[in-house]
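ok trying this again, last paste got cut off
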Amino acid sequence: MTLDARTTLLRDGIASRSLEGAAAAEVYLDPRPMTCVAPATGVRRHADAGSEQMDQLLFGEVFDVIEEEGAFLFGQARRDGYVGFVEAASLAPAGPAPTHRVAAIRTYAFAEPSIKSRAIGPFSINSLVAVEAREGRLAKVAGAGWITAEHLAPIGQFEDEHVAVAERFLGAPYLWGGRESLGLDCSGLVQAALFACGRACPRDADQQAQLGEPIGQNEFDRGDLVFWKGHVAIGHGDGRIIHANGHHMATVIEPLQGAIQRIRDAGYGDPTGFRRVL
């Protein structure tokens, strides 16, 4: 069995104890759960702030740590399984279990129960928070501040349609490895939209190409996924797609056939598959 390095908590002979018997290592360790306390932070390929961002953690997400290297911690994002390095300053010991998720595309926390107090954030949709108290329209969130209660949804209460969630990202800049409202990539958009609907979703496009069931191009409709090598888009309906992409450097809606032609002309080939995920 070949293990995917992106989702295997193993490095330089050190591995998660859960891999004992599945992957060779010199030592197996019990991961230490940490929580992201920054609005968002990068999961990087190396212990270097200038290295490639492969994924992100959002506020409240758990990162299971097995090793420290300088100012970085090596571990695995519990929500999507991605492995990499995260700045230690963005993490703290696991706190209270989340009671709510951020349901608005983005929101601010305030230092005091007043919208005139110092703003912290913004915090993106799908961030996980533990509400400790309420005062008027504001909810006190552990480790963050006071957030508008209408911008939160109880854990277990989800959106109805992932395409409608994706539409809320229109105009968001393209950001490699991003999955926050201020910037995200093609698979980050798919993941964010499905997470908001209570659906599990892996991080990268090739992993997402295993979701749901295959369909023909003639069946492609709203909510379906279309894949190219290294890229994914969501069907918007009426022959259009919505996707975060490096051509527009933003999240846009455009005709599927136009995207197919442009991507083909750029030398990346035709779609590799179409999938129905819901």
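PB: full thing came through this time. Residues 110 and 119 are 5 Å apart (CA to CA).
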